[in-house]
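User: Could you walk me through two proteins back to back? I'd like the raw sequence and the structure tokens for each, with a short line separating them so I can tell where one ends and the next begins.

Assistant: Of course. Protein one, sequence then structure:
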Amino acid sequence: MRHLPTRADSAAPTRSRRRCSVFTIAALSFSIGAASCFAPALASPASAAETCAPGTSAKVAGPPPALAQLGLSAGDAMPTGAGVLVAIIDSGVDASRPQLSDAFGPGSVSLIADDQPASGLTDVFGHGTAIAGIIAARPSSQSGVVGVAPEAKIISIRAFRGDDDNLRSQGLGPDAARTAAGIRLAADAGAQIIVVAMADDTDEPGTRAATEYATALGSLVVASAGDAVRTEDGAPAPIEALEAPHYPAAYPDALGVTALDIDGLTAVGGMRGAQVDVAAPGQNVLTTATGAGDCVYAGDAPDASFATAYAAGAAALVAEAFPLEGPAGWAYRLKATADRPNPDSHDPLVGWGRLQPLLAIGLRPDASTRGPESPFADNLSTQIDPPTTQVSAAAEAPDNTPVIIGVSAAALSLLATFAVLGRLRRRFTA
């Protein structure tokens, strides 16, 4: 496996963050802004302000470069996520986007009371719409965007309106209780994959319980492990800050995701430690924009929110292939087949490594599979490559000898009878 180094570029974009018990997500601003404890601002490409503005229907040439980083390409033989339901707990999703208009399953809802519909199918902030496009955008001749799982269904659970101080003061910003409620609603709706592209530095009992609840119902919670952290003067944060757990990524049942740049490297000052399970692309992200056409976000630095969306799409592909293996099996396949420096150990920067979803689908787990602990009891019996005939090693073949002898004797007796009758027939007709 190839080593995935950290980018040691002193000129890399920097961000600062105040320690506070709130969620962090990617800010979809079009220029570098002041950092907030909720959402460190990210720079988008210079053209983003023009191509991503509401009312603009720009087409950016596709496919998204992240698909190649994940080893995926367009083609009839590729997995699509068909039959999988993905719940996005975020700022809502703009259902008017043509790439997403037919992607919704039942269950979308808004958990906040503002001037937007209760359906959860609007998004004034844009973050949730970007996440949705990464996961499930349908191919279109009018767009270069295509999702990792373009036939998966999504539901939008709108848990916040935006990230600024004014909205937080009105109770419309990110909130741990609403996130926990959203996780439960998503699990109750039957979502196999639940996306929480946010990170909270406080272990809220409600979020922990909701994650455990979702896992018990068969849902895999895919969550951001957090973004790169720097001090106010631009220096890398102390190691203890980088290793501080973020939730729900740090929960044992969740799949925590960190971001890689366009070269497959982690960012300086990126979150690390046990909460990082896997790494996924998070820079130059081509996806859908609220009220607009195609948009490229995170042009200057990788962002864990978008990486989380790519990981969720990869999980949907695995869930399509192995619907009965459940969240533990899906997460195991993704971790065991990820590209990492040492195939036998977890790396503090990239976890079990860069995602390779096609290898995850092709994995035949057995006792020789290296990496994370396997959830399969004997590491031999999984859904892949099932034998055409199963024979118990303890069962003995039945002894059919008496039956064979009896049948043979009966057959010989009948032949002898026919021979006698034949002789008698010739005798009487002579």
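----
Protein two, same layout:
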Amino acid sequence: MPSMKRDILYIDDEADNLVVFEASFEGSFRVFTAESAADALELLEQRTFPVVVADQRMPGMTGSELFEVMRRKYPHTKRVMLTGYADPNAMLEAINQGQVYYFIKKPWERHVVFSVLTRAIETYDLSIANTALTDRLVVADRCSALGRSAARIAHEMGNRLCMLPLLELIEDQYADRDDLVEAAAVARQAYERLTELVDEVKSFVRFEQGSHEMVRISLAELVHELTAFLRYDNTLPIERFSMRVQKEATVVGNRVKLQQVLINLLKNAAHAIQGKDDGRITLVLDTDPAGAILTVEDNGCGMTAEVADRIWEPFFSTKGDEGNGLGLDIVKEIVEAHGGQISCQTAPGRGSSFVVLLPDATQADPAVGDASHSRVAPALAAGPAPRSALPIPAVASAPHAIIETGSTAAMEPQVRS
């Protein structure tokens, strides 16, 4: 099977030279031509050329001036100069400013130019490969540094997760205080989440494969529970958040992981509506024949198509110093681990809509446990913890987290003393 022809761009203000060059190399390359530097720059905006060949003396912009622009905008493209004038100053200018790959004098011979073009393409490919390798090494180095930092953080957090005796004291001695019991239940949930996350980090650092118990989960109960928990999160503008349940749905999954997905999406939405007086965030639960649908929408700043294409990349962030670029990468990984899909629809100034599709649990394995009776276990046991191993108390009675089927359930702001 013949190899695919590579693209070459040739610029010359004399039409006869363009015809001769194209006729000489069209059998070996896909030759594009331009009669001026301005036309060449337009072509370069439209497609990528491994090699650009240009005449030195052209009206408007010389070959060396064109190459100087290209050096800044298209650094990997190899630049070859053709000229019929032995002007040493022009040659120095082309070499120093345009960083020309090769300088060929007219009249040129086909086998010489063909050899130069072939080597230039090989050099271009090597440059691209080296850049990709460098990027991978940078990511690997950042991941290594992140792993070391995560190990230290997990160790310190594990040492300080000592709130359980206090929660047990509240539950035992203040059982008649509904407000304290509810707050203790929310705190116990946070404790369990932190314990599981810390254990997961430890497993990752030790190169151990963590296991997460998969149970049948009512998504309505899950988002209800999460809504009650988020009342205590100062980073989420509760007064601008609403939640709507169109249809009940049951999935097989890990409760903590699915809540982690929603928390990440909601916090991103909160960041997107910052500075917008009428900013709103909506969480919607619905179903379709393919499964359960969780949608997090905001009417914030939105994203360009170029940014939206990169949001799933590790370490890519639009939050500046506030973000580390790992949130959506983790979200995507969790959703796919549940056999689901996640997509994003967005446009500048029109907000964003993240849609999570999860398989319905109707046909799930009967051996899978019921979420109401099975506790979601941490990936790695941290040691004996008799009371923390009990089922987490539900918070369905939270006064500001009412689920209304088919309608919006906006949470009133919680007054914090």
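The first strand starts at residue 6 and ends at 11.

Let me know if you want the two compared in more detail.
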